[in-house]
From TrEMBL:
Protein name listed in UniProt: 1,4-beta-xylanase
Keyword terms, alphabetized: Signal
Species of the source: Mucilaginibacter calamicampi
Annotated signal peptide: 1-20
Top-rank taxon, per record: Bacteria
Length: 358
């Protein structure tokens, strides 16, 4: 915990330089929200609770969003299960390659998804970029899951392909088009610009794209707040930029409630609303029974990883594959089996109690 406190104390060291990077564009039409505006927005929301969502039929973001594998029937069914336990928010990853392949169709599918979610009284957090897992995403048919392996087919975005100004230009068009199209859509709660920047040993290599995506977002007119979640407390430069440029502070914490609360209290010092956009790893004692009530008491949004067990294989732990694909003795993530029955009824009972569905 000493390292965590040191990191918090030096959050401000890089403020001037990094903030200048995101504000250097003369076309910035949506500046960072004031703390008062952020607090006012948050007070208008119901307590945010839900899951990171991908239908069980998709191994990654591309399989979810490409026209050939987009699966509205499964999305509708599974979001119905989410509604049934009182979830009101889903965090959903997009992918730039699916947009570049078919911009009009991609946005049409986003709109279709939002219609389904809204029918179930669910708002959406859309995620643009991601540094996690496989670094070479490709459009077309996606790989089959590796037996017993967590997220074997998940695709980074943009992965290793971002090397030139032409690449940045394509990504700029993507972000600005999507945010302009849906910038006033009340079905969208929040724009999560970049998931876990610096992951997969990238570190500060991700700072330039992180800086640029905030600049691109600020150049669009939108009603929703923007954020990028803090997740690794040793990534000082990235943490500083994310915390000091987000309208709403979002973060990830997969450890036990005591550690989680210490992190939460540190982040409260920024004076902005908090949403935990990833938690719940049973092996780590990050559970619905102990973390969800704590987050509710603290008025912090709670988005766990995983809704329905499927092709992502997130019932298996990050670093513990099971070669024969048998069910692990303790699921790592996810709430429901593919047929809609809960993994643990007592967990669903806790969720429903906290969300007012019981």
């Amino acid at each position: 915990m000493k390292k965590i406190f040191i990191t918090a104390l030096i959050f401000s060291i890089y403020t001037a330089t990094l903030f200048a990077q995101v504000t250097k564009s003369s076309k910035m039409v949506s500046p960072q929200w004031s703390r008062a505006k952020a607090e006012g927005w948050y007070k208008q929301q119901a307590w945010v609770r839900g899951a990171n969502f991908i239908p069980n039929t998709a191994i990654n973001q591309l399989e979810m969003w490409q026209a050939s594998t987009f699966d509205p029937a499964t999305i509708d069914r599974e979001l119905g299960w989410a509604e049934g336990i009182g979830f009101n928010t889903m965090r959903v990853y997009l992918h730039s390659l699916a947009y570049q392949q078919d911009p009009v169709g991609f946005k049409s599918r986003l709109n279709q998804y939002l219609g389904i979610a809204s029918k179930h009284q669910i708002k959406t957090i859309f995620v643009f970029f991601d540094d996690c897992w496989n670094p070479d995403p490709k459009i077309g048919k996606q790989p089959e899951p590796k037996t017993g392996t967590h997220n074997s087919g998940w695709a980074q975005d943009p992965g290793r392909h971002i090397t030139t100004e032409a690449d940045f230009a394509k990504l700029s068009v993507y972000v600005k088009d999507v945010m302009t199209t849906f910038g006033h859509d009340k079905r969208i709660l929040l724009w999560d610009l970049y998931n876990e920047p610096g992951n997969t040993k990238k570190g500060n290599e991700s700072l330039e794209l992180l800086t640029r995506v905030f600049s691109w977002a600020r150049q669009t007119v939108h009603d929703q707040p923007i954020s990028s979640g803090l997740w690794a407390w040793n990534l000082t430069d990235l943490n500083t930029f994310q915390a000091l440029n987000s309208d709403i502070i979002t973060y990830h914490e997969y450890e036990d409630p005591d550690r989680h609360l210490r992190i939460l209290n540190l982040l409260k010092t920024h004076g902005r609303p908090l949403i935990c956009t990833e938690y719940m790893a049973r092996r780590n004692n990050s559970l619905f029974s102990n973390v969800l009530p704590m987050l509710k008491k603290q008025n912090v949004g709670a988005i766990n990883w995983g809704l329905v067990s499927g092709k992502t294989n997130t019932i298996y732990a990050w670093d513990t594959p099971i070669a024969d694909g048998s069910e692990p003795p303790l699921w790592f993530h996810d709430v429901f089996r593919k047929d809609g029955t809960p993994y643990k009824q007592e967990e669903v009972d806790v969720i429903k109690e906290q969300t007012g569905k019981k």
